[in-house]
Write a structure and sequence with these properties.
four-stranded antiparallel beta sheet; alpha+beta; binds zinc ion
Length: 382
């Protein structure tokens, strides 16, 4: 077993831009096997999508069973020339580990692997429960052949999860500032308004879809969607684009289109939002099409044993009590929360998805201690 930094460097050196694995899961497989895990590599595919490699590793056959979930895939580095260091070199300079995936989230996976190695070293194989890792190669992409399918596969095998920690970079500024206990849902709507093309001098012979589109968008943006709930901020609707594509100033176009994204709290469901949107659009009237894609419903793990253990481990290691939050973008927690209580905590996310992604090595050492403490608290010595 090696330390978190060297594991993270080996992982970063695999350029695993979704859906490529580039050897990343193999690095993890070898490390986990060396500490006694039974490792499964599960590949899923679907027509029209790339094959995706996933890994599930478990040690122990008793309950309770705690899972660490994460992803080894990364977003593209963009132009390598704009990086200070080579994005897939895993450079360590003055106490900082650089590279694509350092924060999101190869660094945290490495910390957990190091923590579980330490835990095994101290406690041996009989610690009165099970520990597993569920690592996907399809989180940053369309997430079709990743965690969702691994969970189905686990269910078919009769595996049960009792608790889950997801290692996403939840900390906004400083390690220990934030644990995520849920997420807002995300709905994307594409609204196409149909009209009748015509001459702008003869509007009575045409029907201008742009005017109706503007009124429809006004109807859904002129008042807040809600005032927030006990663990969530107010829901928000943002218009992403309005497209008419009409180059002629004297032509009323036949069609106008807009795309918007709603981040919604637990006061809504995707279904109820769709009904609300149609009511608003119907009130304006005319012909329109509304295509809806809900990439995740909102969810919440109310503060309880998993968040308590995580908060305690953070407080003991860093002397700081984390905020329990539901802010930010989606993660694979949106699939896992239906199976067991879940909380998310990883490294600092300041540079995630950016040029010069990097993490402090001191933070990696602290996160390893935090994860190890979580295991100590979850499996108290008899
Ligand atoms: Zn991530």
């Amino acid at each position: 077993m090696t330390d978190a930094v060297s594991i993270a460097r080996d992982l970063i050196r695999c350029p695993s831009v979704t859906p490529a694995d580039a050897g990343a899961l193999g690095v993890l497989e070898n490390i986990l096997k060396s500490v006694g895990f039974e490792v499964h590599r599960v590949t899923f595919s679907e027509p029209g999508t790339a094959d995706v490699d996933n890994l599930y590793a478990r040690i122990g056959d008793q309950t309770p069973h705690i899972t660490f979930a994460g992803h080894t895939d990364v977003v593209p580095p963009g132009s390598a020339a704009s990086w200070t260091v080579e994005p897939f070199a895993g450079a360590v300079i003055d106490g900082t580990l650089w590279g694509r995936g350092a924060a999101d989230m190869k660094g945290a996976i490495a910390c957990f692997a190091a923590a579980v190695g330490r835990f095994r070293g101290e406690r041996g194989g009989d610690f009165g429960g099970s520990i597993s890792l569920l690592i996907t190669g399809d989180e940053e992409g369309i997430s079709i052949n990743g965690t969702k399918k691994v969970l189905d596969w686990l269910t078919a095998r009769g595996e049960r999860l009792d608790a889950c920690i997801v290692g996403e970079p939840t900390n906004a500024q400083t390690l220990g500032d934030m644990v995520k206990i849920g997420r807002r849902g995300s709905l994307t709507g594409t609204l196409t308004v149909h009209g009748t093309q015509g001459h702008t001098a003869y509007p009575h012979l045409a029907d201008n879809p742009v005017h109706r589109l503007v009124r429809m968008l006004h109807a859904v943006t002129s008042a807040p969607l809600d005032a927030g709930t006990s663990h969530f901020q107010p829901s928000t609707l943002q218009i992403s684009t309005i497209d008419v594509g009409n180059p002629a100033a004297n032509v009323i176009p036949a069609e106008a289109r807009a795309v918007f994204n709603i981040r919604f709290n637990d006061g809504w469901t995707g279904e109820r939002l769709q009904t609300w949107l149609r009511e608003k659009f119907d009130a304006v009237g005319g012909r329109y099409d509304l295509a809806i894609r809900v990439s995740g419903e909102s969810f919440l793990t109310p503060p309880g044993p998993v968040t308590d253990i995580l908060s305690t481990a953070i407080e003991r290691t860093l002397g700081r009590k984390p905020e329990l939050s539901t802010t930010g973008g989606t993660s694979d927690a949106r699939f896992i929360h239906a199976f067991c209580p879940i909380a998310e905590f990883g490294l600092v996310g300041l540079t995630m998805h950016k040029v010069d992604e990097r993490v402090e090595i001191a933070d990696m050492a602290a996160l390893t201690t935090i994860y190890k403490t979580v295991l100590d608290l979850y499996f108290p010595p008899a």
